[in-house]
Amino acid sequence: MNPDGSLRGATSINEYYKTVFALTCAGRRVAAERMLNHIVGRYLQKNGDLDGTGNPWWDQFRIYCHGWVAMAAIELARFDISERGFSRSQDRRLFRDRAGAGQPG
What we know:
The protein has helices at 17-25, 29-42, 58-75, 79-89. The longest helix has 18 residues, at 58-75. By secondary structure, it is mostly helical. It has one domain.
């Protein structure tokens, strides 16, 4: 990992969303905090969504990454970040398929 929390060769959120949680589980809190800060600075948008650019399955499974990042933020007591991630993950529009089906009510 680079000093700024980024990963050498990483091109999308795909390389980060589980890694940051794994670091917290392994007790590598300082490294996890650095990576979480990188994720926030590079991928977390103002509306709470993550930037999925470069991730080929993003349109279909975008909600999946939010939970991993939010869980890492909770483990690190970064509730300012976890709240943004979970709030966005509860946005019903994210559960719609491309045809608009799948949204309740």
